[in-house]
User: Fold this.
Amino acid sequence: MTETKSALVTGANKGIGYEIAAGLGALGYTVGVGARGEARREEAVTRLRDAGVDAFGVPLDVTDDGSVAAAAALVEERVGGLDALVNNAGISGSREQLPTTSDLDVIRTVVETNVLGVIRVTNAMLPLLRRSPSPRIVNVSSGVGSLTRQVGSVGNDSAGPVAVAYSPSKTFLNAVMLQYVRELDGTGILVNAACPGYVATDLNGFRGVRTPQQGAATPIRLATLPDGGPTGGFFEDAGVVPW
Ligand code: NAP
Assistant:
C-alpha cells in the first residue's frame, strides 16, 4: 500500500456518495469512485479531479458478482489496499410500498441492492482492507431502518412513509452489520452505520431537506475514525440512532 490513504465509495457518481468521495478526497484520500454507469462515473471523476481530488473510476454494480470481483482487482492494482470502504449505493424501490399491496419483486430488488450488495462488496474488499493499519467500513443506512423510530411513528409520519421494502432493508443491513462486528472483533476493523438525514437526492425526488454535503458528514467522520474509535454503532449528526 502507498502512504496516502485510500477509500472506495460505492454509488459515488451522484448524491450523498459523490459528496462522501469529495470530502474524503479533500482530506487527502485517494478515492475510488464506484459507479455502474460509465458516463456518469467518468463525469464524477472529472469533477472530483477538477476540485483537486485524487480520484479514479471503479466500474461497480453492487448486484453483480463479476463486477464486484473486477472492482476489487482494479482497486488492488491502483492503490494496493483500502483504508476505508463506504457502502453507500442504495435504492428506494417503487414509490408505493404499502405492505398489504406489496410487490415482492420490489422487495427482492431492494434487498438485493441495499443488503446483499453490501455483503458482496464488503467481502470482496476485505482482503484489501486487512492490508490497512486502520481499516474502516461504513454502511450508509437510514433512520427509517430504526425499529425504535418505526414503533414511535405509528399514527404519525415521523419515520417517513410506510415502506415495506426500503425501511426493512436498512434494518436488515444494520442487523447484518452487527454480525460483521462480532466476527471482526479484535481485528482493528471498525464497522459502523451512518444515517445521513433526509437529504435532497434522486432517491426521494429531491424532497429531502438537507444537502448531499450535509448528508456526507457522518459517513466521512466514521470512515476516518481514529484507532480505538467506536465499532458496531449507528450514528447521525446529532449522535446515536436507536436500533
Ligand atoms: P441517489 O442520489 O439516488 O444515489 C444512489 C447511488 O447509488 C447512485 O450513485 C446509484 O447509481 C447507486 N446505485 C444504486 N444501485 C446501484 C447498484 N446496483 N450498483 C452500484 N451503484 C448503485 O441517492 P442518495 O440519497 O445519495 O443515496 C445514497 C445512500 O444514502 C443510499 O444508501 C440511501 O439509502 C441512503 N440514504 C439516503 C437518504 C436521503 O434522504 N437521500 C436518507 C437515508 C439514507 P446510479 O446513478 O447508477 O443509479
Notes: The radius of gyration is 17 Å. Helices lie at 15-26, 38-50, 65-79, 104-129, 147-152, 166-183, 212-223. Residues 10-11, 13-17, 35-37, 40, 60-63, 88-91, 113, 117, 140, 142, 195-196, 198-199, 201-204, 208 surround NAP (CB under 6 Å).
